[in-house]
Amino acid sequence: MKQLKFAEDLPQKILEGSKTCTWRINDNKNISVDDELLFTNNNKEPFAKAKVTSVLVTKFKNLSDKDWVGHEKFNSKDEMYKTYSGYYKFKVNEETEVKIIKFELDLLIQNSKIHNNGVFAARDIKKGEEITSDYSDEMVPGTEMFCNCGSKNCKKIIRFK
């Protein structure tokens, strides 16, 4: 399985669902649509698995609004080029080629174990009816998980009780 490493602040954004796209320079992994990816943090610890939904190669100067969807924002182009220059250890500018990889999370990985949860109803659920669940009763001690269900009452981080 192909692996992608993410800078310190990005795994949280991915797990929350605000980051669904990554830009890569000099990608030699030959990533393509439908590839399964293992996401790791700076310490090479896995935190999620994802499936590639689209791949586009362009230059920074040709980035469109669509390319920014699901990607973290920068205050300026200079900040963006400086950030990527730091990641890749060479000067990045508007002529630099970038691979835009959009993805969907498949699994969250906690404490190096893969979790794939299912939900079963004890009664019929009406269309449009909100469903809530507190997973903290069922978790392994010392673990936590991120939730992005969108409910106004969401805890965001669920910890073992």
CATH superfamily name of the largest domain?
Sulfate adenylyltransferase
Proportion of beta-strand residues? 25-35%
State the CATH class of the largest domain.
Alpha Beta
**CATH architectural name of the largest domain:** Roll
Count structural domains.
2
Radius of gyration: 18 Å
Order of helices and strands: EHEEEHHEEEE
**Oligomer classification:** single chain
Terminal Cα separation, in Å?
A: 34 Å
User: Low-confidence runs (pLDDT<50, min 5 residues)?
Assistant: 111-116
Layout of secondary structure:
Blueprint: E1 2-5, H1 10-16, E2 21-24, E3 36-40, E4 46-59, H2 65-68, H3 77-88, E5 97-110, E6 113-115, E7 144-146, E8 157-159
Parallel strand pairs: 1-3
Antiparallel strand pairs: 2-5, 3-4, 4-5, 5-6, 7-8
Give a quick set of tags describing it.
single chain; 161 residues; alpha+beta; Sulfate adenylyltransferase; 6-stranded mixed beta sheet; two-stranded antiparallel sheet; 3 helices; 8 strands; 14% helix; 31% strand; elongated
What does this structure look like?
This protein has 161 residues and is of the alpha+beta class. The protein has two domains: 2-109, Sulfate adenylyltransferase (Roll); 132-161, no CATH class. Helix content is 14%, strand content 31%. It contains three helices and eight strands, in the order βαβββααββββ. The strands form two sheets. Strands 1, 2, 3, 4, 5 and 6 form a six-stranded mixed sheet that branches. A hairpin with a 5-residue loop joins strand 3 and strand 4 (46-59). It starts with a strand and ends with a strand. The model is unreliable at 111-116 (pLDDT under 50).
